[in-house]
Every structure is written in structure tokens, then in C-alpha cells.
User: What shape does this take?
Amino acid sequence: MIEKTVVLIKPDGMEKHVVGAIIDRFERAGLVLSALKLVQLTQPILDTWYAHHKDKPFFPELSKQMMSTPVVAMVLSGEGAIQKVFDICGPTDPAEAAPGTIRRDYGVDKPHNVVHRSDSVEAAAKEIGLLFTPDELH
Ligand code: CMP
Assistant: This one.
């Protein structure tokens, strides 16, 4: 099934200057860019984006970190895109990620894991709706 999924290159990824290298990994895997832009995240966006983490002790620090620089936001499309992007990024904790994944190669720890990726088709739809207008999707 052709799916759409959202990837954010988080502030720690922006500061490492690995935007091109990260996009290259997705394109080499056959994923297609449907949307791409720089976004300054805000607290209201993050309150909805991370609604499932709002009560966690790390939420205030996570929010601060996510707003510390603009982020690159993209929508990637392709056959089984959610799983493909999951495999390319690796799990949340870079220490548990396999060599060759983005989070293992560029990440430091859970708060600094370089990229966000949608967890599911439903999460992708919610995230696309929060960050993109219909005319920005190609
Ligand atoms: P992400 O997959 O973007 O979604 C939620 C983010 O919260 C996650 O990446 C991590 O950056 C962060 N996160 C998850 N668990 C923890 C934790 N235990 N401590 C700090 N940050 C966390």
C-alpha cells in the first residue's frame, strides 16, 4: 500500500548539518518527497503533536528542545513508507539502534535522536494536518 509519513529533522539534526545526508537516505530507499519545508514549531503545535507525552516528566524539556531552532519537516510517500522510514531511522533510543540507522549514526540519546517519524498511518494523517496545508502536498 502506498503510504505517506512525516519526518522532522529535529534541532539536534539541524545543528549537525546532516539535512542533505538524511534526505539522501530516504531517497535512496525509493521514498518520494511529497512536501518539504522549514518550520518553527510552537508550544500549541507541540501540545497536540505530543499529546500522548504531555504528562511525561520529559515533556517540558522535549518542547524546549523542539522549539530551539527551526526544523525541516517533510512528507515522504511510497510503498510501506511508515515501516521503511522506521527501519531507516531506528528506534527512539540511539543506543538501541542498529549501525547504519540515522539515530545510531547521528543520535546521542532519547532527547537528541535527530529525527521524528510518524508511528502509524493515523499519526501521519494527524501530523500532516498539523503542519501542512493541502496545497503544500504534491
Ligand atoms: P520522537 O519519536 O520524536 O517522539 C517523542 C520524543 O520524546 C522521542 O522522539 C524522544 O526524543 C523523546 N523521548 C522519548 N522518551 C524519552 C525519555 N524517556 N526521556 C527524554 N526524551 C524522551
About this structure: The two ends are 18 Å apart (CA to CA).
